């Protein structure tokens, strides 16, 4: 059976290299252009203080135009808030604490202002992930930090992660205003072509926050969005550890049971 | 009816109860013996033989989780997407049930592909197991239908546009195509009517057929007996006194404890996905499917879920150029038929090749793409008659046969990978080569499977005690 094992070995290698292709071949998916995404600090999704701060930012800055219509306000009990805290600090529209986080923006007006209805944000951290590029949280974390002034756009704003975005920079008071500096570079694949490549940001006016504070605030907001896209995710992982421990023990017992029976088979 | 039994006076309560039931329902006892305690399976099963029982396990997981999902899901175009999120958020343990079901769909295909591959390398479809194999192929078709119908139900963007693309394939059928597509959708675009009928097929029609076929698959298997990695018929060597195969062991308890061990390992892998990576990086749950279906917004790139992509690749590979290649292949086949055939077969080969070539050029390449995709699945049905090798198991075949199977597996993966990717010139070329290899592997099997130096098959199975 040596050759059989050899074939199995070769196949294992091939399968592994194919899996590597799956992981690396993704960038072909890059939808709508935009720069490579920064890594969102994923550990914040288990940080209650960060999630609460993110929730505050979300209801103050996002929920006016966007909705989160699959999410109930009182689900925020899971991030360490009481119903009273939620009612007093996070519910502005007079709805009940068990209601869904909808909003009252008129679709027609939204169309006139932004060119379309702002998308629902409940699942945005899941729907924006892209194979080979990163998670949806990576995308939003990059997106909310790469707004820059662009007078050629109707809103006066443009974005590196989402070129020609319809939404203006809602957090500009916090971040301040910046302009993007682009340089012309020769395309490494085609010397005849010039590429318009982003080089750096230059501040125009400072915001209320330093750059570090702003990055922190955005990370909190994205942590909230990520948590909201799947509020059970932390419970899921915690439970998963116990399930695997149980199955590990189960499998060992099954293995020994099997051996006990099979010792008779000659 | 069997004779009425009397329990001995000093029998225990359990024994008395058993006798009571045995007198009133002897079939249950006879079937238990036939299928478990006195079903003799070869003792040399290896790791490949876990996937049959695992397929049953996944079927049960899908049915049980499916029952609970139907309690909360709303098959209505306006409510479906929100009802899935309701299950994920508000239904107690709904998230777990849903992830088990979505992971189960992919797990089903992984397990079934491995199960089918086992059959291929050990010649488990060969005489007298042709019907076992054919029932299996029908199960595979049902599974594909089940997955396709089920994938529409979450009513996300990928659900919607995937269904739109696949149903439109039927529109490529000559003459009746557009009407056929309309009949399937029940509307001019995928809509509420489509969702309702797909729901009905997914939860009632297909599962009923599927379960019936699984029963037929098992009954036929237990009639002819299991094959094994050596491809040796264990029924050829029976104990002269008892009539029990010398290399056979009772399925229960030996393979039940064995399979429970397999279940443990499988559930660890399955749970790791369910609890730690339910999206499987976008391969099991696609990012686009977290956006509600929007008939006015076509996603940039529409791809089927991974388990359909090897076949989908072959559909996409069928371009106008590829159809010309098919014409050349058919012509070559015709010439070979004329040269090698005898008597009237010369004429039949020439006429068949000419008709095929004319048909290929008459209809659109899109239609032939659908034919190629269909044929790539249906070709498994005739495998028992394509394989003409003098031995069943790969173990006793010439070494180069093993490499051929290896290349087949590699191409299956490559085609699967390319089917996920957006179309590209290089990708199309590679998938065209893959398609030709795939069909060449099967169509030329009657020729190549006879060639080479075969090893002697032992009289008894090869078994090393554990």
Description:
The complex is a heterodimer of chains A (266) and B (466). Chain A is α+β, with helices and mostly antiparallel strands and 266 residues long. Chain A is built from 9 helices and 6 strands; from the N terminus they run H-H-E-H-E-H-H-H-E-E-H-E-E-H-H. In chain A, the strands form 3 sheets. A two-stranded antiparallel sheet of chain A has the order 1-2. In chain A, strands 3-4 form a two-stranded antiparallel ribbon. Chain A has a two-stranded antiparallel sheet with strand order 5-6. In chain A, helix 2 packs across helix 8 and helix 6 packs antiparallel against helix 8. The N terminus of chain A is likely disordered. The radius of gyration of chain B is 25 Å and the shape is globular. Chain B has a two-stranded antiparallel sheet with strand order 1-2. In chain B, 65% of the residues lie in helices and 1% in strands. With 466 residues, chain B is mostly helical. The two termini of chain B are 43 Å apart. At the A-B interface, helix 1, strand 1 and helix 9 of A face helix 4, helix 5, helix 10 and helix 16 of B.
Features:
heterodimer; A: 266 residues; alpha+beta; two-stranded antiparallel sheet; 9 helices; 44% helix; globular; disordered N terminus; B: 466 residues; mainly alpha; two-stranded antiparallel ribbon; 65% helix
């Amino acid at each position: 059976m040596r050759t059989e094992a050899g074939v199995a070995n070769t196949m294992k290698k091939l399968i592994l290299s194919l899996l590597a292709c799956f992981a690396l071949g993704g960038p072909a998916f890059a939808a709508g252009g935009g720069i490579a995404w920064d890594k969102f600090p994923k550990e914040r999704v288990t940080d209650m203080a960060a999630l609460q701060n993110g929730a505050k930012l979300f209801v103050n800055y996002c929920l006016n135009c966007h909705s989160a219509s699959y999410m109930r306000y009182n689900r925020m009990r899971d991030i360490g808030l009481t119903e009273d805290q939620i009612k007093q600090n996070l519910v502005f529209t007079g709805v009940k604490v068990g209601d869904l986080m909808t909003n009252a923006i008129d679709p027609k007006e939204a169309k006139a202002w932004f060119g379309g209805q702002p998308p629902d944000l409940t699942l945005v951290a899941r729907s924006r992930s892209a194979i080979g590029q990163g998670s949806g949280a990576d995308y939003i974390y990059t997106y909310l930090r790469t707004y820059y002034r662009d007078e050629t756009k109707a809103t006066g704003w443009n974005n590196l992660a989402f070129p020609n975005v319809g939404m203006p920079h809602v957090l500009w008071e916090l971040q301040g205003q910046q302009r993007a500096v682009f340089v012309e570079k020769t395309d490494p694949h085609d010397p005849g072509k010039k590429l318009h490549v982003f080089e750096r940001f230059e501040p125009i006016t400072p915001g209320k926050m330093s750059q570090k504070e702003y990055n922190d605030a955005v990370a909190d907001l994205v942590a909230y969005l990520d948590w909201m896209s799947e509020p059970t995710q932390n419970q899921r992982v915690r439970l998963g550890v116990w399930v695997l421990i149980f199955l590990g023990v189960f499998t060992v017992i099954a293995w020994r049971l099997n051996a006990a029976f099979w010792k008779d088979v000659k | 009816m069997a004779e009425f039994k009397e329990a001995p006076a000093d029998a225990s309560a359990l024994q008395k109860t058993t006798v009571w039931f045995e007198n009133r329902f002897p079939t249950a006892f006879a079937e238990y013996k036939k299928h478990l305690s006195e079903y003799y399976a070869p003792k040399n099963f290896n790791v490949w033989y876990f996937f049959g029982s695992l397929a049953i396990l996944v079927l049960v997981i899908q049915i049980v989780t499916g029952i609970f999902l139907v309690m909360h899901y709303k098959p209505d175009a306006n409510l479906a997407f929100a009802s899935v999120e309701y299950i994920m958020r508000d239904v107690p343990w709904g998230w777990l049930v849903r992830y088990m079901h979505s992971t189960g769909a992919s797990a089903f295909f992984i397990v079934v592909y491995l199960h089918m591959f086992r059959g291929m390398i050990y010649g488990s479809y060969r005489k007298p197991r042709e019907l076992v194999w054919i029932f299996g192929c029908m199960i595979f078709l049902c599974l594909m239908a089940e997955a396709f119908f089920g994938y529409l139900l979450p009513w996300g963007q990928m659900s919607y546009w995937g269904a739109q693309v696949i149903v439109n394939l039927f529109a490529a059928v000559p003459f009746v195509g557009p009407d056929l597509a309309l009949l399937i959708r029940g509307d001019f675009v995928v809509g509420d009517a489509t969702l309702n009928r797909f729901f009905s097929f997914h939860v009632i029609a297909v599962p009923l057929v599927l379960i019936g076929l699984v029963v037929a698959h098992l009954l036929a298997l237990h009639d002819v007996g299991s094959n094994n990695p050596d491809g040796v018929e264990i029924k050829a060597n029976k104990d002269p006194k008892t009539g029990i195969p010398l290399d056979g062991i009772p399925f229960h308890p030996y393979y039940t404890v064995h399979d429970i061990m397999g279940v443990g390992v499988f559930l660890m892998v399955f749970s790791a996905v369910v609890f730690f990576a339910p999206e499987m990086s976008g391969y099991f749950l696609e990012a686009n499917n977290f956006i509600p279906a929007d008939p006015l917004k076509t996603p940039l790139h529409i791809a089927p879920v991974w388990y359909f992509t090897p076949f989908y690749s072959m559909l996409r590979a069928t371009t106008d150029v590829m159809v010309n290649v098919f014409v050349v292949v058919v012509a070559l086949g015709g010439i070979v038929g004329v040269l090698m055939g005898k008597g009237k077969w010369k004429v039949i080969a020439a006429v068949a090749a000419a008709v095929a070539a004319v048909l290929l050029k008459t209809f659109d390449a899109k239609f032939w793409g659908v034919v190629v995709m269909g044929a790539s699945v249906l070709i498994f049905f005739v495998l028992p008659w394509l394989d003409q090798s003098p031995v069943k198991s790969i173990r006793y075949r010439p070494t180069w046969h093993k490499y051929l199977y290896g290349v087949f597996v590699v191409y299956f993966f490559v085609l699967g990978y390319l089917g996920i990717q957006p179309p590209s010139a290089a990708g199309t070329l590679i998938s065209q080569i893959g398609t030709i290899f795939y069909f060449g592997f099967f169509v030329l099997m009657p020729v190549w499977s006879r060639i080479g130096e075969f090893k002697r098959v032992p009289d008894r199975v090869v078994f090393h005690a554990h």
